[in-house]
Automatic annotation (TrEMBL):
Catalytic reaction list: L-threonyl-[protein] + ATP = O-phospho-L-threonyl-[protein] + ADP + H(+); L-seryl-[protein] + ATP = O-phospho-L-seryl-[protein] + ADP + H(+)
Domain Protein kinase: 1-195
Highest taxon listed in the record's lineage: Eukaryota
Family to which the UniProt record says this protein belongs: Belongs to the protein kinase superfamily. CAMK Ser/Thr protein kinase family. PIM subfamily.
Keyword set includes Transferase: yes
PROSITE patterns found in the cross-reference section: PROTEIN_KINASE_DOM
Keywords: ATP-binding, Kinase, Nucleotide-binding, Serine/threonine-protein kinase, Transferase
Protein name: non-specific serine/threonine protein kinase
PANTHER family: AURORA KINASE-RELATED, SERINE/THREONINE-PROTEIN KINASE PIM
GO biological process: negative regulation of apoptotic process; regulation of mitotic cell cycle
GO cellular component: a single term: cytoplasm
Protein EC: 2.7.11.1
Provenance organism: Cyprinus carpio (Common carp)
Amino acid sequence: MRLELSTMRRVQRNPPCDHIIRLFEWFYTEDQVILIMERPPNSVTLFEFIKHSKGHPTERAAKVIVRQIIVALHHCNVCGVHHNHTHLRNILINRDTLQLKLIDFGGARLIAETPSEERTLGAVSRETAVRSGCECLYRVLCALIKGIPFWIRLSRECTDLLQELKNDRTWNTLENILDHAWFKEASTVNRGERN
């Protein structure tokens, strides 16, 4: 629990990230640490959002969601934290606005700046953090597009990003993924999807 507090305090640094749950206060007792965090309105886990989604998700919604996850994970990495437990149940999403928050830093690890820190602190390398982030993004994107009906084809850019994430293309940072064509305004939306 103390590592969770430590990593959460690191990611709260200025400027804060809108896509990471806010830590307001913390208290120590004899046998535990109590964390007081924000409770985003009208939010459910991304797992519940996908499961109970009325109609079907769109590629455009998937893009909005994945972009926010990239921003949150990149912010963590810049602060020296590897979330290490990013999955559909550790992401809260507002059902109306699609605003999301990364939660649960209980499994987070520090990012080592040197090989000796990896050994002594049990930290992970920056490359490991980025690779793990890419694997997470691949799984989340697959879960999101799984609900898109088969008659709506995904854009070339979306399928290209999926392939690059799956094939473990080397990204320097998670932020570099935002330079991919899928995130550009001119990218092709799925045919059959209304604007």
